[in-house]
Amino acid sequence: AYKIDSLDKSKMYSVELGFAELYDPNCGIGKRIFDIRLNGNTVGRNVDVFTAKGCRTAYTMNYDVQPNSDQAIEIEFIKRDENPMVSFIRIQEKAGTSTSGTSSIFVNAGDTNERTSYIIDSN
């Protein structure tokens, strides 16, 4: 699970989730299936990246979300078959919801050989 906090709960944010099935044994229909929850609400059921895009091909899903009462966006991946995975998470303030420009947060959620990085960009 990921929790991005210190957000303005009066604003809307675009959440972009990036995936790519890179593990050869899971390159097949139904090999890795999971659900996606944003702030406790299921927004993706039975996600199967291979079925959507094949092996080693980028796949993104986008959602508009308002932070919860804790000023956070919580992202959960629920296992159905095999462990869930995500390659990156980008959270960007929706245009028109700020008077001080836009900002985005990028989380590199890659494999265990990479460090998780947070890039905060304010325009």
Structure description:
Helix content is 4%, strand content 46%. It starts with a strand and ends with a strand. Strands 5-2-7-8-9 form a 5-stranded antiparallel beta sheet. The model is unreliable at 112-123 (pLDDT under 50). The protein has one helix at 49-53, and strands at residues 2-4, 13-19, 33-38, 41-47, 59-65, 73-81, 88-93, 103-108, 118-122.
List the helices and strands and how they pair.
Elements: E1 2-4, E2 13-19, E3 33-38, E4 41-47, H1 49-53, E5 59-65, E6 73-81, E7 88-93, E8 103-108, E9 118-122
What's this entry about, in short?
With about 120 residues, the protein is mainly beta.
Secondary structure class reads mainly beta
How far apart are the termini?
Answer: 28 Å
Give the helix tally.
1
Number of strands: 9
The rough form would be described as elongated
Largest sheet composition: 5 strands, antiparallel
* Overall pLDDT metric: 85
- The spatial strand order of the largest sheet comes to 5-2-7-8-9
Radius of gyration in whole Å, from Cα? Answer: 15 Å
Poorly predicted regions: 112-123
User: How big a fraction of the residues is strand?
Assistant: over 45%
What is the helix/strand order? EEEEHEEEEE
**Could you estimate the helical fraction of the residues in percent?**
under 10%
